[in-house]
Amino acid sequence: MSKAWLDELTEVVGEQYIQTKKSSLIAYSFDATPNFQALPDAVISPKSTLEIQQIVKICAKHHIPIVPRGSGTNLAAGTTPTQGGVVILFTRMNKIIELDEENLTITVQPGVITETICHTVEEKGLFYPPDPSSMKISTIGGNINENSGGLRGLKYGVTKDYVLGLEVVLANGEVIRTGGKLAKDVAGYDLTCLLVGSEGTLGIITEATLKLIPEPESKQTLLATYDSIEKAAETVSSIIANKMTPATLEFIDQPTIKAVEDFSQVGLPTNAQAVLLIEQDGPAQLAERDIQTIEQLAVTHGAINTSIAETETEAHNLREARRTALSALARLSPTTILEDATVPRSEIATMVNAINDIAKKHNVTIATFGHAGDGNLHPTCTTDLRNEDEWERVEQAFEDIFEKAIELGGTITGEHGVGEMKSPYLEWKVGEQGLQVMKQLKQAFDPHNIMNPVKMFAKSTRKRVVVK
Amino acid sequence: MSKAWLDELTEVVGEQYIQTKKSSLIAYSFDATPNFQALPDAVISPKSTLEIQQIVKICAKHHIPIVPRGSGTNLAAGTTPTQGGVVILFTRMNKIIELDEENLTITVQPGVITETICHTVEEKGLFYPPDPSSMKISTIGGNINENSGGLRGLKYGVTKDYVLGLEVVLANGEVIRTGGKLAKDVAGYDLTCLLVGSEGTLGIITEATLKLIPEPESKQTLLATYDSIEKAAETVSSIIANKMTPATLEFIDQPTIKAVEDFSQVGLPTNAQAVLLIEQDGPAQLAERDIQTIEQLAVTHGAINTSIAETETEAHNLREARRTALSALARLSPTTILEDATVPRSEIATMVNAINDIAKKHNVTIATFGHAGDGNLHPTCTTDLRNEDEWERVEQAFEDIFEKAIELGGTITGEHGVGEMKSPYLEWKVGEQGLQVMKQLKQAFDPHNIMNPVKMFAKSTRKRVVVK
C-alpha cells in the first residue's frame, strides 16, 4: 500500500474494511454489464455518513474517483470503476432506520436489499411498489441512483415516485438533507428528484425516506397467449383505450417464452408467438371485474388462449417466471445484453417488429420482453463477446434499436440508466443543448469530477445517421 | 421609449404586443401577494417559442431581467418584477396542441388556463388531477413553474407528478426538450422534474406534455363537523392508519367556516370548531364503501355531525365553497396573507394549535384551513398592511409559524413556492449547504442571473432562534 491517500482512507474505516488485494479488486472491477471492466485502487466499506464524509474529503483532496456500488446488478456499466479510485460498498450501512406507520414512510440506509423493504412493510399492511427484477439482490441505494423501474410501473410508477427525502454527501464532503416526511415541499429546487437517477455522479446517497401506500387488498393474474405480436400489442392499446390501468402489463415474445419455460417450467405455451402477463390489484370485486374486462379485450383482439390464475401459488409462479427472463436467456449463450429502449406505448408493436427486423439485418439473435404498458421493452441479445465479428454486429444492432426508439419519440433507456455503456448515445435523446446543460449541472455539483466519472457523459457522441 | 433594447424587443413582437406605458406597467407590477411591488420596463406578449428565444437573446445581451408570468395568482411574490426588466405574458401562447388518447397525454402551451385542460380531457373520459384553488384563472405554465398542489394531492399527487416533458428556452436563448410521451425515461438527469417548481429562475417553459389518467367513475363527498380541532386531526390520522387514501381530505377551522359560509351560503355549521371535507372517488361500490368507513371513523373520533352529499350539486357546492376560502377571508380586511407551512401529517393537530398560540402571542387574527391529508395547512391572516405596528406583528407571527413547521420536520412552503416573499427563510429548510448547492445550480443554468432574479434566493437569510 504505497499511496498516501490509501493510508488516510485506512485510518478512517480501519484495515478490516478496506480491500486492496488484487483478488478483491477484481471482484469489483465489473458489474452485470458485459464487456466493461476496470480495476479500482481500493474497495471500502464505511459504517456511517460521517465516515463517508471523511472518505470523500480525502478523495476530493487527492482527486481520486469514487464509485458508490450497491449489488452491482445494473446493466449499463454504471458501477465499473473506469478510472480506478475507490469503490464504496454499503454492506455495513444496511439498516432500516424507521418505519413510520402514521406518516406512511420508511427511512433506510442505502445498503438495504429492496426485497427486504417490501417484506418489512407488507407485514404492516403497507406497500413499496417499485420492484426491479433484481429486487431480491439489488440495494435500495442502487435503485435510487438508477431510478429503477419494475413490473408495477404502469399503475404505481417508478423509484422516483417513492423517494420523499435524501441524505447526501456532496463532492466537497458536506452533507445535505432534501425533502422529508412530507407529501408536499416546494422549498427551492427539487434536489430529491434530481439526485434520484443521477447514477452516483452528483453525490453519495447515505439515507433515504421512502413513501409507502396501503397494500392492495387482492390481486388477479391473467395470462393471454397470441399467435402474433401485433394482436398482443393491440390488446395493450385496447386496455389503455378502455381506461383500464392494470398493475402489471408484461409482454413476452416467443424466444423469451421458450427460454423462461425451459428454466422455470411453469407451463408457458412455448409455441405461442407472444404472451401478455397481466395483473390487476385492489379490492376483490374491483380486481375481479377489471381482470374479466381485460380478458374479454384479449379475446376480442385475437388471443388464442386466456387463463386467470386460480391460486396465489399459480400467480406467484407466473410472476416469478417473468422475473427470471434475464437469467433464463443468459443460460443460452456466454454473453447476454439486455437493453431497455422505451417508446410511447402506442408504438409497442412498431418497435417490436423493428427490433426483429434489425436482428435479421445484422444476423444476431434478439429476444424481446418487457413492460408493455410503459412502452418499456427489453430486447435481449444472446451472443458471445469473444466472437469479434458477431460482437460488432451486436453493437450495430443496438445502435439501430436506439435510433429507432428515438425516431418513434422514445428514449435510449427507460429504467437502466446511461452509465458508461449508453453514454455515447445520450445526446441522441437530449440533444446538444440538453447535454450541455447536464454537463454544467454536473460541474456545479462536482467541479473536480470525482463522483463516478466517465458515467453518463462520454468523451464523444456516436454519429447518428437520421433516416426519416 | 429611449432604451435601445426596447426597440430590439419591439422588432421581435411588433408594437402591438409590447406595453411600456406607465398604466400598463403598473398592472403587472404586483401579483396576488400583498406588499410586493415593482415596475417592469416592458410587458411583452410573444406568439411563439422562436419569439421567446429572440427576446431572451436580446435580454441576455443587455443583462435585462425576465419575469415569466401566467395569471399572477401566486402567493409568494414569484412574479413581481423586482429588478424591473421584461414581464413575459403567455396570452398568445394558450393553445392545446394535442390530446393523445392512445398515450394518455395532453400537450399544451403555457398560457392555457388549468381548468380548460381539466374540462377538455374530461370530455374524453380522462382526468388531469392537479387542481389548485386558483384553477379557474391560473395558467398551466404558472402551475408548472410553482409545482402547484390542490385539493386532490393526497391521492393523486401534485403538478410534478403529471409533467412528462417540457420545451424550455434557456438563459442563453437556446431551446431544450426534456422527457416526452414516455412512462419511463432515465436518459440523463431528470431536468423535467428540476424545472417543475423552479419558479422561472432556470428557463422559460414554452410547451408541456402532461400525463392523464382515466377519470374516476364516481365520487362521494362527506362533511364531518367537530367541536374540537384535535378530534378532527385524530380522524385524519385514523383514516390514514386504516389504510384509506381519500381523494380529498380538507380541514377548515371555525373562523374560515364562518367566512366561507357568509360568502357562499352552502349550509356550513358556523358554530363548529372544525370541519373535514372528505371525498373518495373510484368505482361506485368502492367509493361508497370507503366513504362509509370514513364516516364511521369520523363518528368514532368524536364528530358531532356527519353528512354525505346526496346529489352532485350538493357535493359540488361544498367543494366550491372550500375553494373560495381565500376570497371569503379576503373580504374581512384590507390585506390577506395566506401561507402554506407544511408538516408531516401526524403533526397536523400540533401545528394547528401552535398556529393559534402564535396568533394569540402576537395579537393577530389567523384562520386556518388546508389539505390535512398532506399536512399542508393554510394559516391565513386578515390584516391591514397600512397599520405598521400590526404588520410587524403579522410578519413576526409568520416567522414563528415557519420556525414551528421546520421544528416539526416540515417545510416553509408546501405548494406556493419560495418567490421573493419566503426567500429569507429558504435556508431554514434546506440548510447552508443545500442553499449553496441550489445557488450553484442556478449559476450553471443562468450565469448572468437574468431569469426571474431575486426569487428563491435572498440577499440574506433571516436569523433563526432555534428553541428546542
TrEMBL record, chains A, B:
UniProt KW keywords: FAD, Flavoprotein, Oxidoreductase
Report the superkingdom from the record. Bacteria
> What's one GO MF term for it?
(S)-2-hydroxy-acid oxidase activity
Q: Which Gene3D superfamilies match?
A: 3.30.465.10, 3.30.70.2740, Vanillyl-alcohol Oxidase, Chain A, domain 4
Q: Which GO terms describe its cellular component?
A: glycolate oxidase complex
Residue span(s) of domain FAD-binding PCMH-type? 36-215
Record SUPFAM superfamilies: FAD-binding/transporter-associated domain-like, FAD-linked oxidases, C-terminal domain
Cofactor(s) for this UniProt protein: FAD
Pfam families in the record: FAD-oxidase_C (PF02913), FAD_binding_4 (PF01565)
Q: Which PANTHER family match?
A: GLYCOLATE OXIDASE SUBUNIT GLCD
Family according to the record? Belongs to the FAD-binding oxidoreductase/transferase type 4 family.
* NCBIfam families in the cross-refs: glcD
Q: What is this protein called?
A: Glycolate oxidase subunit GlcD
Please give the organism: Alkalibacillus haloalkaliphilus
Q: Which gene encodes it?
A: glcD
